[in-house]
Amino acid sequence: MLNFIYYPVSAIMWFWHKAFGFVFGEASGIAWALAVVFLVFTLRALLYKPFVHQVRSMRKMQEFAPEMQKLRAKYGNDKQKLAAEMQKLQSQQGVNPLGGCLPVLVQVPVFIGLFHVLREFRPGKTQNYIFGASEVESFNAASLFGAKLGAWVTMGQEQLAALGTSITSMLIVMIPLMIAAGVFTHITARHSVARQTEAQLANPQSAIMNKLMLYVFPIGVVDGAPFLPLAVLLYWVANNLWTLGQQYVVYRKIDAEEADKKAQVIADRQARAPRPGQKPIRPETVARSEKTPGAKPVARRSPNADGDGSAAGGDDGAVQGETERTEVTGAGANGSGTNGAGAGGATSRPGATGPARPPARRSRKRR
User: Fold this and answer.
1) Residue 162 binned pLDDT confidence (cut-offs 50, 70, 90)
2) Is residue 112 part of a domain?
3) Would you say 174 and 233 are in contact if contact means Cβ atoms under 8 Å apart?
4) The domain containing residue 101 runs over which residues?
5) Burial level of 235, CB count in 10 A (0-12/13-18/19+)?
6) Is residue 31 part of a domain?
7) End-to-end CA distance of the chain
8) Cα–Cα nearest to 336, from 321, 347, 322
9) Three-state SS for 180?
10) Which terminus of the chain faces fewer neighbouring Cβ atoms within 10 Å, N or C?
11) Segment 109-133, tens digit of pLDDT
12) Which residues contact 28 (CB under 8 A, 6 or more apart)?
């Protein structure tokens, strides 16, 4: 029924056994043990990206957890509306809740496939999926420091003696591995709990799950190890060791990325901030290209304003013409009147030297 799992698992294990058998010998217990360990490493390497996606999804869910609490408080009585709003919020944030469960869900069939393949290495078996009869016999004959890889403690003394080992030999090898599996499970759980927010730690359900992860699961690994084959125990230790190292690498990478983002935000904010002693520039103070209606006109200086006040010949005529143009301009701006001066306008004197006087303002009468 699950041959689509058993064949790939056995094929990966067969490849690594051939690789290490070339070095240590195909009948060596070290070659078979390393084949199991690197089977775990291969599968976990394939699941590296899903694990990173899982960590990022959990981090995003922690960021908008307050918004989810608001939705629960607002739509607590309407389950359908709450589910729709939660799904909408998750889609906006780009978070998939199932992404956090993917690595665990993938490891479960792998563990089942490995357990089944190792259980099929029985004496007298002619084939075990990819492995042939000679390879099955080699696995049953291989031992790791006197313990058989396919045997477990609860098999009984008679069956262990038939395989060429004993309970004492099995316990000498399995007890250190049991302790290592429990310790690695506990440390991995502590790393996960340490990254939870204060709100999650204050949640009673999260507190119960944290206690289970920290204490119950490691004790369960130690207590359940005698019922598992030695090769499965090797798988469990290698899996927890890989998880511990992978968490360390991935968490440091993500923390470094977030630190760089925060530093970039601070740098951009400082770049936009005014320098010490500099007046801040606001958008509304930027010079406008068009004149504002009602603004006071600014008189321009005449080109001859810096002259010496006297000119000969053609210079006098130029000054006279400039004065006449000024008079016409003043008359048009302030109204019409005699000699180009309106009511309240200023009349320029012909022949006067120096800059033209700006037109006087019209006095307003108070009613």
Assistant:
1) confident
2) yes
3) yes
4) 3-260
5) buried
6) yes
7) 106
8) 347
9) helix
10) C
11) 877 887 788 778 877 777 888 888 8
12) 20, 21, 142
